[in-house]
Amino acid sequence: MDKKLLVRGMVATVLGIIVIVGAVFALFPLKGHSGSYILATPYPEQNETYPVVRTVSQELTDEDVRHIEMLFNASKDSALEVSRHAGTFRYSIPDKDYPYFTGAQPDIPSDEEARIIATRFLRERGLLPGNTRFSGVSFGSGYGECDGHSCVEYVLTKRVTFEREVHGIPVYGGGITVTIGESGEVVGVDWNIRDFEPVPDRYVRIITPEEAYGRLLSDQLIMLPMSGREGVVRDISLVYWERDYGEYLPVYAFSTDSRKFYVWAVDSTRREDVK
Amino acid sequence: MPENEVTSTTADVRYTGYAAISVIFFSIFAVFVGYIGRISVPYFNGDIFPAVFFLFGMVSFLGGALFLYRTADGDDSWYFRVPLIVSIAVVALSSFLTPALQVQEVLLVFQYSALVNAYIGSLAFILLAPLSALFFHSIPVLRRGCVSGHVVVSLAASLLSGLMLLGMLQGDVILFPHPSESLFGFCSWFYLLVGLPAIGITFLATSSRVGHP
Known about the structure:
Chain A is an alpha+beta fold. Chain A has helices at 3-27, 62-72, 94-97, 111-124, 209-217, and strands at residues 36-39, 49-54, 79-83, 88-92, 132-139, 142-146, 151-155, 158-166, 169-180, 186-192, 202-205, 230-233, 235-243, 247-255, 260-264. Chain A folds into two domains: 30-53 and 200-273, Lipocalin, CATH 2.40.128; 57-192, no CATH class.
């Protein structure tokens, strides 16, 4: 093979690609974007329209608060915070919810055991509504020790989360988190369930996942982070997001290894413009 | 003039081309300067990583092509120098295509274009070290015994390449041009800050010997 010809060919190919791509994007200017999100998952199949449901105001009465106190047998070692207007509450045994490390790994149940304990606890107290499903078990509080060669992590509590669903689609921010401590004791419950009207208010047309990805690239995020606007997108899904005027609207959630990014799935979030 | 006598001009061109190959190996330092100086390169939309690797990659590629062209009349070990230059070209092209493949219009043409480009760019980036070892070994004037020091430097950097390849096979695709925060991402930072510059220094240190054998 003529070596010099090979070299000339390589240079011509590389420069040719650069010139062609450069010319194409000179004629069709890039839409501005600043995030760097690489797609590593197929676009999901979605319906064209989705229901919009209205949330129900659930002011807690004195009787409701007393009932919640009875459910948890609140004592001097525990704390119960109730948000009457939002209809949510938080129960905690602070010394066990955020325990001190005692020098050894406490007896913490496995993920499956934690799920069973949390589910039974909520069901016995009527705190697991029908359209709520188990979401996962995660690391709660812990303690780490490093000796220069290796690090050891001790799990002190686990968190079992349950998602609220609206017509089969999870709700952002809504749900129940049960904290499991030593020997499987329930040491904390975060209850954030808002009722909604079962009959949809109306149906809205949503954008395609491809269009949603375009919004992601052009930083049209519902919550714009200060940094870290990049990642490999491993999953695309729909969730419901509660708007200020008390209704759940669909949004696309793009999951990377470290966080999720959310973009509106509807063309406009102004109520009067939604079809 | 005898056919085998190297002219001063040829030596200078060969020396320049060989020395220019080292440029891409020092890219990370230009990235730091770019971040600190908030330098924004047109077309790359403020993303300094691909901008630097494209510009430095092109300098190295053209220098390498010039070196290959000027040594084309040498021995058959010439072919072992080609893979490194090709790898540098792929790094430069992948960097150039990174902002282009994230444009909305392109998404409809090929959904995974950005992912494929990232994988190809990562692989070419990882191969810079082992292909440098092959490159040094192919130059007769640098060969000393079984393995010369220049090859050892490149092979040492190649150990990091192996770890990064392992990470890539496990799905850690953001090795290039944006190292991630995982263990394999840490390896790619070490590769950028220590491994590649060591190879770049080797190129510069041996350029006078290669240019004037």
